[in-house]
Write the structure tokens for this entry.
Amino acid sequence: MADIMMWEAIMRAHDEEMANDPMVIAMGEDIGVVGGTYKATTGLYDKYGEQRVIDTPISENGYTGLGIGASFLGVRPIIEIMSVNFAWLAMDQIFNTAAKVRYMSGGQLQAPVVIRSPGGTAHQLGSQHSARMEKVFMGIAGLRVVTPSSPRQAYGLLKSAVRCNDPVFINEHELMYNMRGDVPEDEYFHPLEGSEITREGRDVTLFGYNISVHWCLKAAELLSKHHGIEAEVVDLFTLSPLDREGIRNSVSKTHRAVIVEEAEPAVGVGAEVMAVINEECFFELDAAPMRVSALNVPIPYNHAMEKAALPDENNVVEAVRNMFGV
Amino acid sequence: MIMKDTDKKRVLREMLFARRFEERCYEAYVERNIGGFLHLYPGEEACAFGVLEAAKPGHDYVITSYRDHVHAIKSGSDPKKVMAELFAKETGVSKGRGGSMHIFDVANRFMGGYALVGGPFPLAAGIAKGIQMQGGDEICICFLGDAANNQGTFHESLNMAKIWNLPVLYVCENNLYGIGTRIDRSTAVIDQYKRVSGYNIPSAQEDGQDFDKVFTAASKAIKHVRGGNGPYFLELMTYRYRGHSMSDSNAYRAKTEERMWSDRDPVIMLRDRLIVSGALTLDEYKEMDTAILDEIEDEVIRYATESSEPPVSEVERFVLADNDPWVKGGVK
Ligand SMILES: Cc1ncc(C[n+]2csc(CCOP(=O)(O)OP(=O)(O)O)c2C)c(N)n1
Ligand SMILES: [Mg+2]
């Protein structure tokens, strides 16, 4: 095991996949000479050259479409969109082309692109740099959506995504690139479908993904210490397709569920997981499922207001206490 | 490049076939054998045929908008399978999942019809990037309308195609309208080829009704692109005879304007030129036409009619790849 930062894990995945297959390319704004806004493509430009490590113009829909078109011919582009807020501009090509081309061509074409982008809210970046868009991507048929909570997942998910024949959106987080964690020394491919039990527990399941997994883990410790409640934490690293079996298994064991998401509540991960629980294991429930979400506001600049707009471990503890009436 | 009269005769037959094919689509739509949106090509045939006659169909990649039947057929698609697609049959080129706006025939390197105006601009540049990486001598040819040039993708793609020297030919079929909005009401610069100079990309404007002129202009353009000199933009001035789609009554166009363009019918112009040069007689042409109508009825329509629809049980097929091993974390 190597203890490395998330950006190093992502860089290593790029490097291994580019060394393995000459058709793998990296594209995005400032990813080449500069090495990426979050350093995730450091060193690749010098190693693989400008034909394969491409500094793009600031044309999100254009270069995403270009990557998709190249993928029709067997190129495997890893497209970095500098911030998920800018991915709105590429929605046309992601949704109208990448997600649909296999279907509408009757299986003749596929778009094996990887689009990775930091979502989430960092510190005081203001309304237009704080979007959380995973809910938008996970609602579209034909697109896979994964979201790493650790360097190990970031590394292994990117490697599998590059080799998978479907378009994959990887939802990263601006605050997590310097997070450290163990990554296997040997090559490792993380499954693109599933969920992971990050902490075993019997009383309630806390469903998290990406950064909210960490809030769930902290909340679980607090609940155990102060209230004797043993929470199970399930990491939904796949947002599409959701791991229905994993959700059912955990809820069937704990009989209670709290879904923790960084985004506004409407039409979000929490709503979707609740629907899955209803469909899969409604009669296992001892309490109505709850969700912990951001407030329904654009993210403010003021730091106190920003903090108030976002959930954290304390909100999770509070939700669980409400559920148990303690 | 000079083309022999025997070749032109073959092209005339192909163009007339395309005309009759599209007219038959119109009828099939009225008969309710074709549903959804249907955009027809009559009036614009010299564009697709002039350009693709100068290219290597089946070798070069072609991509276009929703007005795509004729481009697919000229790329090598079996007209029976194109019609079967319009009839929503399993034997259709896209297995009945695509429809008129989404004709795909990847074996013939026809990379699809796309419904979002301007969508294919970057896809074409990407296909050209793929060609460049594979090192082949193919080019990508992207046919789009005039109104599509007001999309951001037009500018974004031209810019990228130029800076990365991509082998892509953009063909603008300028039929003067985007649905019912005439070009001078939507677009600051009427001559589309001039808009490209801002990206330092060579371009030309040509009479899109005259097969010979299109062929010559396209030959030059293709030579440029295939020679590794980067992108080229060819604007062809043309006109569609029918409404934008089947729901369009065409009320926004002056009858005098329509007459002016029908006097310059690309099929008739090529026919008359061959008659004048002595390579064709009017009787021969009429026989050709009758044979085409018979072929469309007896083979194309019959095939589409007799084919079966895709099984509804397969509605969830083709959403994602089947049994992709990497979904489970690989095949170590
Ligand atoms: C992004 C988008 N906006 C609007 C439409 C509706 N629409 C379909 S065709 C069309 C006009 C396009 O005109 P042009 O590019 O000149 O092509 P033509 O139909 O004349 O061949 C419009 C507005 C669409 N399909 N996609
Ligand atoms: Mg037009």
About this structure: Residues B 67, 115-117, 144-148, 173, 175, 177-179, 244 surround thiamine diphosphate (ligand 1) (CB under 6 Å). Chain B has a mean pLDDT of 97.
